Amino acid sequence: PIEKLVALLNTLDRWIDETPPVDQPSRFGNKAFRTWYAKLDQEAENLVATVIPKHLVDAAPEVAVYLKESVGNSTRIDYGTGHEAAFAAFLCCLCKIGVLRVDDQMAIVFKVFNRYLEVMRKLQKTYRMEPAGSQGVWGLDDFQFLPFIWGSSQLIDHPNLEPRHFVDEKVVNENHKDFMFLECILFITEMKTGPFAEHSNQLWNISAVPSWSKVNQGLIRMYKAECLEKFPVIQHFKFGSLLPIQPVTS
């Protein structure tokens, strides 16, 4: 299933190459994204069917909804943490129907989610997508949140790399291929100009936290407060039979 999911994401990547940006007067939100998205809209169920076994094929339409929601909005040509949450929901559904298992955890994050990140970055760059609901310098990042949580947990108990090191350009350049958190920092520095402390103030503050476990705990709290509990983000979230809206019994 992990290999099939990576293949699915490779297909989305290939479609970007096949759908170059169009010439248009406005700098942001290239309309070619809508062409790319229309293809996904049409093919999503077939793509999901390649990942799930035959006897679960009835789940494909519902799971496909989360895949379509995870790549950005085709009307506004934007992308943000709500779309990222939809990809987490997509993975969660695959766990609930038994396609992904507990012992796939590391691969779910570092193979599948990492490949998803690469494709999203390519979408953001190619079609110059607007950040959805960005809080500017007060937000953690214009587009993503989850890789900072998983990336910081990956660095807990690292013998040499401390939170203060991620604002050091040399450290990032030397280690970004091995650590999800540093890869995120590299992408920000590629996309933004000016001093890091100015364009990414929240991350700059986080670099002063003494340990990665503290960073990780803080980011989980922040994710709940800034993403999952924010109406502008969560109003677009889809509920169905796999992820019902019924309150949980404690």
TrEMBL record:
It catalyses: [protein]-peptidylproline (omega=180) = [protein]-peptidylproline (omega=0). Its EC number is 5.2.1.8. It comes from Alectura lathami (Australian brush turkey). It is an enzyme of class 5 (isomerase). GO terms for biological process: mitotic spindle organization. Belongs to the PTPA-type PPIase family. It is found in: Cytoplasm; Nucleus. Keywords: Acetylation, ATP-binding, Cytoplasm, Isomerase, Magnesium, Metal-binding, Nucleotide-binding, Nucleus, Rotamase. Pfam families: PTPA. This is Serine/threonine-protein phosphatase 2A activator. GO terms for cellular component: cytoplasm; nucleus; protein phosphatase type 2A complex. GO terms for molecular function: ATP binding; metal ion binding; peptidyl-prolyl cis-trans isomerase activity; protein tyrosine phosphatase activator activity. PPIases accelerate the folding of proteins. It catalyzes the cis-trans isomerization of proline imidic peptide bonds in oligopeptides. Acts as a regulatory subunit for serine/threonine-protein phosphatase 2A (PP2A). Modulates PP2A activity or substrate specificity, probably by inducing a conformational change in the catalytic subunit, a proposed direct target of the PPIase. Can reactivate inactive phosphatase PP2A-phosphatase methylesterase complexes (PP2A(i)) in presence of ATP and Mg(2+). InterPro entries: Phstyr_phstse_ac, PTPA_C_lid, PTPA_sf. It comes from the Eukaryota. The lineage of its organism: Eukaryota, Metazoa, Chordata, Craniata, Vertebrata.
